[in-house]
Amino acid sequence: MAARRTHDLAVVVREYQNNAGETKKQWQNIGVRLEYDDGGASLLIDRHINLAGLPGEGPVRVSLFEPRARDGQSASPAPQSAVRTPANNAAIADAAAAFDLDIPF
Hints:
10% helix
């Protein structure tokens, strides 16, 4: 059962004002959404993220963005969001492929 990356998972880690006085958000990639040949899906979340350490109170909103190619261009013809993805997404996708096990429960 092969897995393919369909989305990047990202959270806002802070808001700031740029030189023009506009409020902007800094995003952090925290993992990927995988889709399997049988139609199933799962989330592969980076081990380093501590959702409790993010600013704010209450629940944490995790956003899904279509992945970008490593050169910054769209990996698919669909329109892309303004989120930059870190280079470690290739390593995550490789780990997801290795995670292709049948779980006995």
